[in-house]
Specification:
The chain contains 14 helices and 15 strands. By secondary structure, it is an alpha/beta fold. An 8-stranded mixed β-sheet has the order 2-9-8-7-6-3-4-5, with helices on both faces.
């Protein structure tokens, strides 16, 4: 028989956060080996529970979750989101400008499918959260990656953005706070991106899922709050700020220059209707989450668990010879660099697999985030202090062995 093959539309789609190295890790676990997983930003396995008031509110209202909601989502949930956009100073957002989805991931795919024709281009950061690149590709578009500059704290290179724009460019993606680097973009950078979008008539897609996971007294500015003459599509949700990844409660907000985007907005509404509605139990959590006690502030405070783990991971990693890292201002990740003179890595996926096999620590290689060279990897600092110390100790031991194996001296 002829083999049944996957669609050619998937040829250039990859998502290495759950890729082949993870498959090998699962096999090792089935064999009884314990793997320390620093590969995915999923707080629950590391003891970060959803706030009790959110859990109880979902349980109490579960009898209302049996039927479909409006395709855009529950009115009360969307109203709470509308109020949140007002707190973020995003102007003129109505209930109808909000669509609730099964997490931001579903909405990213919808936003690309509603916009792109074959050959259209979207500017995507490098490094990126790889779903963005995959979603553009799956929709028939072409991702063009603009550089985020490590030397400037991983801020977008505005000149490189300009250089990547063509007649086929339709929009620009920003991930702020950033995954995988932990960068937080200042107002001047955001205004520079808006000016580019304004000049070239681009849609700005803003992934702001980590907007409350901020350290050292930092504050977050929503790019959509800075202009009303550019079309913005802003994405947010409960998964990170409220440690509820499994609830799959995310939303997109359309704002800014909407009057010339009615056809695109109709496309978004059409796709929202086709999947009937987002899961209702997750929607039931939104109003309580946004209006309740913001326990994330305790976790990111200097005495909080997330902040302490960030500081520890940064300290331990940068003490390893040949490893440098920009300290993250936000989110749950570090994106360290390996000095290529000391670590002459040719294939970083193989490098990460070797680390897994030898030390039983699971990471994701930098090229999995569409970074251009095999000299970075992402570390999730969600494990507790003891596990984090153990894991980075194992990474240090592996890197020492690697240096000796390749004759490189720090």
């Amino acid at each position: 028989m002829e083999p049944i093959r996957k669609s050619s539309k998937l040829s250039n789609v990859c998502y290495d956060i759950r890729g082949p190295v993870l498959a090998r890790a699962r096999q090792m676990e089935e064999e009884g080996q314990r793997i320390i997983k620093l590969n995915i930003g999923n707080p629950a396995p590391f003891g970060f529970a959803a706030p009790e008031e959110i859990l109880q509110d979902v349980i109490r209202n579960m009898d209302q979750a049996s039927g479909y909601t409006d395709s855009k989502g529950l009115f009360a949930a969307r109203k709470a989101i509308m109020h949140y956009t007002q707190q973020k100073n995003i102007a003129d957002v109505t209930i109808d400008d909000i669509i609730i989805g099964n997490g931001v991931s579903e909405l990213i795919v919808m936003a690309m499918q509603a916009l792109l024709n074959n050959g259209d281009q979207i500017l995507v950061p490098m490094p990126d959260y790889p779903l963005w690149t995959a979603a553009v590709t799956l929709a028939g578009g072409t991702p063009r990656h603009y550089v985020c500059d490590e030397q400037s704290g991983w801020l977008p290179d505005l000149k490189d953005i300009e250089a990547k724009i063509t007649a086929n460019t339709r929009g620009i993606v920003i991930i702020n706070p950033n995954n995988p680097t932990g960068a937080l973009y200042p107002r001047e950078t955001l205004e520079g991106i808006i000016e580019i979008a304004r000049h070239h008539k681009l849609v700005v897609f803003a992934d702001e899922i980590y907007d409350k996971v901020l350290y050292d007294g930092n504050t977050h500015t929503s790019i959509a709050s800075l202009a009303d003459d550019v079309l913005f599509v802003t994405f947010n949700g409960l998964s990170k700020n409220y440690r509820t990844c499994g609830y799959r409660a995310g939303w997109l907000v359309v704002s800014g220059e909407k009057k010339h985007a009615t056809d695109y907005i109709e496309g978004l509404n059409m796709l929202a209707s086709m999947r009937l509605c987002a899961n209702v139990p997750g929607q039931l959590a939104i109003q309580t989450a946004l209006g309740g006690y913001q326990s994330i502030n305790d976790l990111v405070a200097p005495s909080g668990r997330l902040c302490k783990q960030r500081d520890l991971a940064y300290k331990l990693l940068t003490e390893i010879p040949g490893v440098s890292c920009t300290k993250p201002a936000a989110a749950m990740y570090l994106f360290p660099k390996l000095d290529p003179a000391i670590y002459p890595i040719q294939d970083d996926q193989q490098f990460i697999l070797d680390l897994l096999l030898e030390e039983k620590v699971l990471l994701v290689q930098g090229t999995g985030f569409n970074w251009k060279t095999p000299d970075h990897f992402r570390v999730v600092f969600l494990p507790n202090v003891d596990d984090l110390t153990e894991a980075i100790g194992r990474i240090a031991r592996f890197l020492e062995t690697y240096r000796k194996r390749h004759g490189a001296k720090a």
